[in-house]
Amino acid sequence: MASEQWFVGPLPLGPGETPPPDDLEPGAQACGKPSWSTPPAIPGDPPEPEAEDVQEQLQEAPAASTPSPEPLGPGPGPAAPRLALDTMFSPITEQLRYLLKKAEDFQSYLLYSRDSVQKEQLAKAMPTFLQMCEPYFLYLEAAARSMPPIYGALQELIRKGLLEISQQLTLRLEQLVLMYASFGFVSLEDTDPLSISCFFCGRFSISPSHEVSIFRYCAPAAYTASRFPRYLYKKMRWSLETMPEPGGRGQDSHVDYYFLCYRDTWEDTGKSPANSCPQIQKLWSIGRWVPLGPAEDDIYSWILCPQPPGDYQQLLTIGFEEPSHTLATDLLVQILTGQAGPARPPSAAGPAAWAAPGS
């Protein structure tokens, strides 16, 4: 497991200053270890490089490994599967610890470095760090959700462990990006092509011709630039790619977009949040993007349009409590496979097993 550092050591302290704590900044929630596995401690880190090499070393750092565990079957007793499971998860949890350590380094040097040049270097390296996590997310989500399952009798236990890791890393990255945004080093504006409004959290297949990609918004974003429908905000996005069937002629790939959104119900009443019940401020749902324009054959309209307008086809009402990253994706899969209410995938090329009553 690679353990090279991307940052310099602690800066000299000024008169009356105290060294930064070893733990995270108070108020920042630490990410605990997965409950089903306790990875061994990572040895001490080697000497750290100079500050000007931060971005170069980040680009040269090894990408998140994607281990390929062998399919497991039930053993002779409960101890044997548990031992095999812990052995299989060891490189996965070590990679998690490595990425969380890098995220902690980003946070520490943002909070305690007095060198503005170094902070700017870290801000430029942030998108590269998010890209470095993408192969790891790809492995976690594909191994946990892709069909058909490949782990036999241990599928559910493995799925739970992998998704727990995915959830943990997603929340840590979201927290880190929000902190950098609060310092003004990154933008969260959804219409800014250079912003980090959302980041990639994995991809998996639900059929031989359908793949789902997951994206997480660091901060709630208005559903469209014109805020229509009113008071609707995005928190997650899924891209459903429908690929041509083998041997199919004249078929092109097609992408549909689904969102986890909430609606500020108190805004509909015209009352302020202070005069409203906090339990009914946010009503969460999953819906599909329905494009309203510009015309597909008018390239100039697309160039001049800051953000294409779209309607929101609500498919599932969740409730007043925000679902976790993992649960929201589980619900979307149920919608796409016809297991959660009257929803039909919009692509006509979907498999017959997806058929559900029309909405």
Automatic annotation (TrEMBL):
Domain of life: Eukaryota
Region feature Disordered, mapped onto this chain: 1-83, 340-359
Pfam assignment, any one: DUF3314
InterPro entries in UniProt: DUF3314
Coiled coil: none
Residue ranges, compositional bias (Pro residues): 68-79
PANTHER family recorded: UPF0575 PROTEIN C19ORF67 (PTHR36292)
Name of the protein described by the UniProt record: Chromosome 19 open reading frame 67
